Amino acid sequence: MKIAKGEAKNVELIGYHDLEDRPGFQMAMQVTDGRWFLYLGHFWHKGWTIMDVTEPSDPKLIRFLPWNGGQDTITIKVQVAEGKMIANLQREIPRLAHEGAHFEEGILIFDVKDPVDPKLLGHWKSGGEGTHRNYYDGGRYVHTSAGCPGFYGNIYRIVDISDPTHPVEAGRWWLPEQWGAGQVPTAEEEKFGGPAASYLMPHHLRKYSLHGPPYPKGNRAYLNFFNSGVLAILDISDISLPKLVSKLQFNPPFGNMIAGHTVMPLSKRDLLLYTTEGTFQGFGGQLDIAGIVDISDEKRPRLISTIPIPEPPPGSPYKNFHEKAASFGPHNFHEPHNHPDLEDRDDRIYLTYFNAGLRVYDIRDPYLPKEIAYYIPPDPVKRNGPMPMGKLGVSSEDILVDRRGYIYMTDKNLGLHVLRCTI
Questions:
Q1: Beta strands 302-306 and 348-352, pairing class
Q2: What is the spatial distance between Cα 252 and Cα 228, in angstroms, rounded to a whole number?
Q3: CA dist., res. 299 & res. 332, Å (int)
Q4: Which of 14, 56, 144, 348 places its Cα 20 to 30 Å from the Cα of 408?
Q5: Where do the H-state alpha helices sit in 147-300?
Q6: If we measure between CA atoms, which residue out of 366, 369, 371, 361 comes closest to residue 312?
Q7: How far apart are CA 46 and CA 32, in angstroms?
Q8: Phi, psi of 96 (to 5 degrees)
Q9: What average pLDDT does the segment 145-152 reach?
């Protein structure tokens, strides 16, 4: 399928698929019998798409697997490893929810040993609003950002899927401010039902919610919390009893509604990547950032640099991306997740930046990260979902890079872009 080429520096457009007008969100991958399969969750449609990307210039949509759950369920996140697919179930985001509508929650566990015919094995129910961004790299445990009765927002919950037909919680951790019984609710919180119904609260009352994914590396896990912008390092040597090692606060001075979006350890260096989430156009407020944190002394994590803010291409009709339609700011890194079919580089990072598209950075010197490439898709010509609010514009969402070097990128209103860095 054809699409007009976007604005690019050191990135080429390899292929494109319109996803039958179901814009994708998070992606996962597995290689089976020499064929490369890409799995996509969706924002505006309940279910998952399976694609064959063996030939990246000609991505083929194999099937769309619908989820016929409650009206207010979203299925935007997906992980695949060792023949299992972990899919999130979550209440619709508050601004788009229908009052009183039913929703499903938790995680679904599928067998995808036959990559195009997933078979549902089990369903873990979390309570609250379900799960958001989760981590699974195979084996026994799924690390979830999950609702929990009696707590404000999502907390860290570790799920044992050794018997995928009967998944059980194996451990949990939360910030003290999240424990409902230990807090005196404000009048505004009481209006929404207190901690038992914190999933109904607007974002500004859920500032201690875990955004995720909780990202494990060895016997450590790295967490990031929503409006508060708290980065937490945990010792998970005992899965049943995670313990705090240290914290680093980002908000203030950074971030707005989601001041803690992603924290990701590099596999071979004592560094973390951190992002807030870009704000909706016109929201204003504090600076949203992507940055690098030094954890060589894990009891004293330090923000040592920020990723350069993207500049418009030469000749652009706007002097900065805040003037362009849709949201601006960092969103998702490519996350290798210890996966054999994904690229894992410690010298280069890939980051979606909403209306600034894909940005690629050289981080060999963590004190001086440099942008080396970008790709900004053309603006959508039709609206496939209710966001971004206001004028329709490109909104690059998620990013995945396979070990062949092919880059897969999704958008709120466009299909799947397949790209490749030329340097």
A1: unpaired
A2: 8
A3: 26
A4: 144
A5: 187-191
A6: 371
A7: 26
A8: -110, 0
A9: 93
Q: Are 124 and 131 within 8 A, CB to CB?
A: no
pLDDT above 80 for 196:
no
Nearest 5°: phi and psi at 143? Answer: -100, 115
In the chain, what are the domain boundaries? 7-421
Mean pLDDT of 131-159: 96
Taking the domain 7-421, which CATH number applies? 2.130.10.10
Give the CA angle between residues 390, 393, 395 to the nearest 5°: 105
d(Cα 84, Cα 156) in Å, to the nearest integer? 21
Separation between Cα atoms, residue 411 and residue 399, nearest integer Å:
10
CB 116 within 8 A of CB 105: no
**CB–CB of 303/291 below 8 Å?**
yes
User: Is the per-residue pLDDT at 121 higher than 90?
Assistant: yes
Average the pLDDT over 270-287 and give the result: 81
Q: Predicted confidence band at 180 (pLDDT cuts at 50, 70, 90)?
A: confident
Q: Are 274 and 262 in contact (CB under 8 A)?
A: yes
> Residue 149 and residue 128: Cα distance in Å, rounded?
6
Are 335 and 366 in contact by the 8 Å Cβ rule? The answer is: no
pLDDT reading at 202 higher than 70: no
pTM metric for this prediction: 0.95
